[in-house]
């Protein structure tokens, strides 16, 4: 909250004592969704409790099958393997695709840190290329330049489908055939988004999803999923995520404990039934923001940049992210109006303290750095109401007036 007390004490300013306080608009409100699904979800949890099958039980199998059907229309086209988190899913997808020590993996610096730490966990070295400022996703042009510079060391590219929009997969597919690289999708924010009508999760050699509670498909704790069209990669993911064990207590390689919990699978299987509807609601909300921001003159006159959707992509708006002049002051203004916003992400990965050993310096990836200073995520979740959106845009308008 912004300061509302005077320097001398806790007194409110006079005009604020008279203004009726409007209810807060959170950036994300998960309780509205739970309120609708409460009996169904509690029933499913009770079933798991009655079965006492908490690890790799029926609920996990059922959800893996539902996820494959959701993504492809049939469960024969893709393998879906539950795991403990989105972070683990990226690691499993990379390692099962053959990434290891000595390899370089090209990725975006404008993402959540886990995209990069998963590469390090394979023993590989992350290499960053800059983003496309229009979509916020890894730019295939800068990726190509990096591949030309280091053609034998870069073994894979890990694009992130950021905010719910797939990276330019036509171009990455070209790079794959030209340079013989592996493509792994970080689809943590994009369950249900498509590129040329093909689902995220089906595009690369393997893909990783996160069901962290705030994601567009969220569990009641940590959970993740790896998908792959390759039988061999899928089989390796299953082994790696279960202690490198094919036969009980015989461990052919070093794996980890990364399994999807039955309680989480039961929650996810119910929520998945509503996901198409929720993703459609997110798209409607995004279109309404576009229209409200434009008609308030915020786009043409006041310099707000709306999110750009590539015509080949179905953007599911996990986040609705604008670029805003004087972003930090705008955010403070909105916070004072009790309107929740978020900054994804305030510091690009290559400039994080923990990534210093990689040797990148400020100015090396200028689009990512500029973007980190300009972006603001507005409230978005399927149950957000039109009147709430109108209040958000009015508050933005008042800031720039
Ligand atoms: C959330 C997220 C992850 C990590 O997922 P967890 O389930 O939190 O481990 C990885 N990459 C991106 C882009 C994410 O948004």
What does this entry show, briefly?
With 401 residues, this protein is of the alpha/beta class. It is built from twelve helices and 14 strands.
Describe the secondary structure blueprint for this structure.
Blueprint: H1 14-18, H2 31-51, H3 58-72, E1 79-83, H4 86-96, E2 104-107, H5 114-121, E3 125-128, H6 140-149, E4 154-158, H7 169-179, E5 182-186, E6 194-195, E7 198-199, E8 206-210, E9 224-228, H8 231-240, E10 245-247, E11 250-251, H9 262-295, E12 313-314, E13 320-323, H10 327-336, H11 366-374, E14 375-378, H12 386-400
Bound molecules: pyridoxal-5'-phosphate.
Pyridoxal-5'-phosphate is lined by residues 85-87, 111-112, 114-115, 160, 186, 188-189, 210, 212, 222, 224.
Question: What is the percentage of strand-forming residues?
Answer: 5-15%
Q: Give the CATH level 1 class of the largest domain.
A: Alpha Beta
Query: Which CATH architecture of the largest domain is right?
Result: 3-Layer(aba) Sandwich
* Coarse morphology: globular
Mean pLDDT comes to: 94
The CATH topology of the largest domain turns out to be Aspartate Aminotransferase, domain 2
Total count of domains: 2
The helix-strand sequence is HHHEHEHEHEHEEEEEHEEHEEHHEH
Number of helices: 12
Structural class comes to alpha/beta
- The termini sit apart by 21 Å
- Can you tell me the residue ranges where pLDDT is under 50 for at least 5 consecutive residues? 1-12
Unique ligands: pyridoxal-5'-phosphate
Radius of gyration: 22 Å
Q: Tell me roughly what share of residues is in helical segments.
A: 25-40%
Task: Report the sheet with the most strands, covering strand number, pairing sense and barrel closure.
Answer: 7 strands, mixed
- The CATH H-level superfamily of the largest domain is Type I PLP-dependent aspartate aminotransferase-like (Major domain)
How many beta-strand segments?
14
Q: What strand order characterises the main sheet?
A: 1-9-8-5-4-2-3
């Amino acid at each position: 909250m912004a300061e509302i007390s005077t320097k001398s004490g806790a007194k409110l300013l006079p005009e604020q004592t008279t203004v009726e306080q409007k209810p807060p608009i959170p950036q994300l409100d998960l309780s509205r969704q739970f309120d609708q699904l409460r009996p169904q979800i509690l029933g499913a949890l009770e079933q798991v409790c009655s079965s006492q099958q908490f690890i790799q039980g029926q609920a996990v199998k059922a959800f893996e099958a539902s996820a494959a059907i959701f993504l492809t229309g049939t469960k024969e086209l893709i393998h879906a393997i539950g795991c403990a988190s989105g972070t683990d899913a990226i690691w499993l997808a990379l390692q099962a695709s053959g990434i290891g020590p000595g390899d370089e993996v090209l990725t975006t610096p404008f993402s959540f840190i886990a995209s990069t730490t998963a590469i390090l966990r394979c023993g590989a070295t992350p290499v960053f290329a800059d983003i496309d400022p229009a979509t916020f996703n890894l730019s295939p042009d800068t990726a190509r330049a990096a591949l030309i510079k280091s053609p034998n060391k870069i073994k894979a590219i890990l694009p992130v489908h950021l905010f719910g929009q797939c990276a330019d997969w036509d171009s990455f597919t070209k790079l794959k055939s030209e340079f013989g690289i592996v493509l792994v999708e970080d689809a943590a924010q994009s369950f249900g988004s498509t590129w040329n009508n093909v689902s995220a999760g089906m595009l690369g050699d393997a893909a990783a999803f996160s069901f962290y509670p705030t994601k567009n498909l969220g569990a009641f704790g940590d959970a993740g999923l790896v998908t792959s069209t390759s039988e061999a990669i899928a089989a390796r993911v299953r082994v790696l995520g279960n202690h490198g064990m094919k036969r009980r207590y015989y461990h052919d390689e070093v794996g980890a404990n990364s399994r999807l919990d039955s309680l989480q699978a039961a929650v996810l299987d119910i929520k998945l039934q509503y996901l198409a509807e929720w993703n459609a609601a997110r798209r409607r909300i995004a279109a309404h923001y576009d229209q409200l921001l434009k008609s308030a003159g915020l786009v043409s006159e006041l310099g707000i940049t709306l999110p750009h959707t590539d015509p080949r992509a179905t953007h599911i708006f996990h986040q609705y992210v604008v670029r805003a002049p004087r972003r930090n002051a705008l955010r403070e203004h909105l916070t004072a109006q009790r309107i929740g916003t978020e900054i994804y992400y305030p510091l690009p990965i290559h400039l994080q303290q923990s990534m210093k050993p990689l040797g990148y310096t400020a100015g090396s990836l200028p689009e990512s750095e500029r973007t980190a200073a300009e972006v603001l995520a507005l409230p978005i979740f399927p149950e957000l109401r039109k009147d709430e959106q109108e209040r958000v845009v009015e508050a933005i308008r008042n800031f720039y007036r």
